[in-house]
Every structure is written in structure tokens, then in C-alpha cells.
């Protein structure tokens, strides 16, 4: 079962009913403090449901740079660069219950935070 959250909206993708031993939760956002806050919420929720928590593990930050010309017509040497960074965290949960998955679907996260929940066998 995969659950995806983009800007607060979850999408549930069923792969069949199986007992889940582990869940991998990936959290992404453009701001590092939003990622850390969302990771803390997930860890507190998992500990309240007595699941074993491993993480949050910081994953490499993706850095994307875009270069544009300042002038439309002339001055090729005059350019400007913009960058966006995508910060990521991974949390692995063991001994997951159905109530934990239901509460994770209803978890309030700030706009701009993407969360992906994946079952690992």
C-alpha cells in the first residue's frame, strides 16, 4: 500500500491486504524547518502508537540551479542564477498497526510538505 500526500491531500494506492511489518516514510519540502517539524510529528505519532521508530534519517538535499539571461535582446554575459533545494528525511517504522496508518492519513501537515508512505516487506 502506498500513500502520497502533496500539500495536505493524501492519495491511497492499495496493493492488496497484507500484514505490514515495516513502513518507510519519506518527507520532502523546499524548507528544512518544515521537513524537521513534519518528521517530529510523525515520530511522536508513531511512539504514541508503540511502533518502533528508526530515524528521521537525513537524505541528500537536491539542489537545482536555473540560469537565465537578464536581457532579452543583448548582453549575453549578463546572467542571473536561481536555485531551489529539496530537503528530504526518511523514517522507518516497525510493528505498524492499522490505527497508525489511519492516523497518519489524517495528520495535519503544513502546505508545501510532501509525504510518501510505503510498505516494506
Automatic annotation (TrEMBL):
User: Might you report a single GO cellular component term?
Assistant: ribosome
**Stated name of the protein:** Small ribosomal subunit protein uS10
Q: How does it assemble?
A: Part of the 30S ribosomal subunit.
Listed GO MF terms: structural constituent of ribosome; tRNA binding
Gene3D superfamilies cross-referenced by the UniProt entry: Ribosomal protein S10 domain
The organism encoding this protein is: Metamycoplasma alkalescens
Q: Sorted alphabetically, which NCBIfam families does this protein's record hold?
A: PRK00596.1, rpsJ_bact
- State the UniProt keywords alphabetically: Ribonucleoprotein, Ribosomal protein
PANTHER family per UniProt: 30S RIBOSOMAL PROTEIN S10 FAMILY MEMBER
